[in-house]
Amino acid sequence: MRSTGNARKRVRTAAAAAAVLSLALGAAGCGDDDSGGGGNGKGGGQEETVKLPKLDGQSIQVAGTWTGPEQKSFKVVLDEFSKRTGAEVKFVPTGDNVAGFVGTKQAGGAPPDVVFAPQVGVLQEFVEKGWAKPVNSAVQKELKQNFVQGWQDLGAVDGKQYGVYYKAANKSLVWYNTNAFEQAGVQEPKTWDDFIKTAQTISDSGVAPVSVGGADGWTLTDWFENIYLSQAGPEKYDQLAKHEIKWTDPSVKDALTTLGELFGEDSLMLGGKNTALKTPFPDSITKAFTPPDAPKAAMVFEGDFVASFIGDTKAEVGKDAKLFPFPAVGNESPVVSGGDAAVILKDNKASQAFLTFLASPDAAKIWAERGGFASPNKNLKISTYPNDVQKTIAEALIQAGNDFRFDMSDQAPAAFGGTKGAGEWKALQDFLKDPKDVAGAQKQLETDAAKAYK
Q: What is the annotated signal peptide range for this record (predicted)?
C-alpha cells in the first residue's frame, strides 16, 4: 500500500470547503480587490521576496504536461527565474503519461532536472524508484512559510519532503455560456437532478447542453470522483482511493449509474457519446465559448484552469463565461482538489533554487496575474488574480485550509490512475461508450486496480 503522507488523515469532510466555495461564488463581483489571501499578506504585491543564487552558465530542463495557454504562462515563470539567476531553463513537454516519459528518460540516462508530477501516485513512484531527490532547507523554509500542512504533506513521503505544489486546482466546477443559459431561460442548478433537468431544457432550446472532452480519459475520472464524493461521502471516498474497498462495491455502482444519466443520453452531450470520445479537453472548452453568442454547447465541466483556455477565445470570463459548483448528488456539493508538484530528478544548485522560487509568492504571482491558475500559496494576495471569478476560486482554496479531498485517480498508482489508454482512464472511456454496462465497468476497474495496487 502506498503512503500519501498525513494529508488524508488531516482532512475531515468536503462540506466545509464546499460551503466556502458556494459563498465565494455567490459573492463574485462584490468582493474587495485588496483582500489578502491569508498568512501575513506579504508577497503578492511585492517583488523578489525570496533570495535566489546567481547561476550564470548553468542550465536545467523542466518537464511538465502543460500545453497551449498554460504552457505559455508557465514559460513566463521560467523566464523570470532565468532573469533573476542567470540560469538557462528549457521546458520539455511530457505528454499525459508523465511516469512513462520519466521512465524512458531515466533508462536513457537523461532525465530532466525537474518534472511536474500531476498525480500523488506518480510522485511516490519516483521516490520508491530512487529517482526523486529530497528538497533542501531553503525550499522547506519557503514551504513552511507559505503553505498549510496539508499541501506540504501531499509532497512528502515517509516524512521527507520531495514535492512543491506550485499549481493547484479546484476540480469541482461547471463553466457555462451565459448567452446559452439566457436563451434557454435557465438558472444555475444546485443539485444533480436539477442539472439533468437544466441540460434537457437547454437541449430543447436548440443548443447541446454539455461538451465532454472524453478523448482525455482524466476528465472522465473527474466526473466520476465528484459524483462519488457527493453521493457516497468522504469516508467511502478515502477507502476507494486507498483501494480498501473494491470497485465492485455497491457505492461505485450507484455513482456510475448516476453518471450514466448524463453519458447515456446523447441529446445531453455535444454530438453524443461518439463525439465526446473523440473530443480533446481543450476543444471541449472552445466549443462552449466560440463564438460567445452562438456556442455549440452550453456547459463544460472542469477545474479553474478552464479560464486559461477561455482566455484564448473571444469570450470574457465573468461576462460570457461564468461557473457554479458541481451539483450536489448527495447532501453537499463536492470539492475535489488537484495539483502539480515540482519534483527534483537531478539534485543540483539550479534545481533546488528553482523549487525555492516555485514555493515563494513571487513565482505564484506571475501566473496568477495571467489567469487560469490557482495557487495553494497562502501568502499570495487574492487581488493578484485578474477577475472576480478567479479571485473567489482562489480565496475558497485558501480558506479551505486542510479541509479538502485530493483527486482520487491522482492518489492511485500511475498504472491505474494516470496512464493514457489504460487503467481507470480507459475503463471510463469504455463506460462512456456503453453507459448501460455498469457491471462490466466495475469489473474492469477492479481488475486494473488490483494489479496496480499490489
A: 1-27
Kindly report the CATH number assigned to the domain that includes residue 224: 3.40.190.10
CA dist 201 and 283 (Å) reads 24
Q: Which has the closest alpha carbon to 150: 45, 334, 12?
A: 12
Produce one character per residue of 211-223: b if its CB has 16 or more CB atoms within 10 Å, e if not.
Answer: bbbbbbbbbbbbb
pLDDT by residue (tens digit) across 49-82? 899 999 999 999 999 999 999 999 999 999 999 9
Collapsing DSSP to helix, strand or coil, 48 comes out as coil
Q: Please give the tally of structural domains in the chain.
A: 2
Cα 417 from chain centre? 14
Secondary structure (DSSP) of 144-207: HHHS-HHHHHHTEETTEE-EEEEEEEE--EEEEEHHHHHHHT-----BHHHHHHHHHHHHHTTS
Do 120 and 103 fall within a single domain? Answer: yes
State the Cα torsion 73-75-81-84 to the nearest 10°: -90
Give yes or no: residues 104 and 75 share one domain.
yes
Domain that holds residue 63: 37-170+339-406
State the pTM of this model: 0.79
Distance, CA of 368 to CA of 384 (rounded, Å): 6
What's the alpha-carbon Rg for the chain, to the nearest Å? 21
Residue 299 and residue 182 in one domain: yes
Q: Can you tell me the distance from the alpha carbon of 77 to that of 426, in angstroms, rounded to the nearest whole number?
A: 34
Backbone angles phi, psi at 60, to 5 degrees: -140, 150
With respect to residue 57, please indicate whether it lies within any of the assigned structural domains. yes
Supply the DSSP string of 298-361, one letter for each residue: EEEE--TTHHHHHTTSS--BTTTEEEEEPPBSSSS---EEEEEEEEESS-SHHHHHHHHHHTSH
Domain identity same for 101 and 141: yes
Q: What is the pLDDT of residues 420-430, one digit of tens each?
A: 999 999 999 99
C-alpha closest to that of 254 among 194, 330, 325, 200: 330
What cell was used for 63?
518537464
* Enclosing H/E stretch for 61: strand 59-64
148 and 190 both lie in a single domain: no
Decide: 417 and 446 in contact? Cβ < 8 Å. Answer: no
Residue matched to cell numbers 461576462? 319
Task: Map residue 41 onto helix, strand or coil.
Answer: coil
> Cell numbers 512528502 correspond to what residue?
156
Whether residue 152 is predicted with pLDDT greater than 70 in this model: the reply is yes
- Tell me which residue of 301, 273, 210 sits closest to 430, measured CA to CA: 273
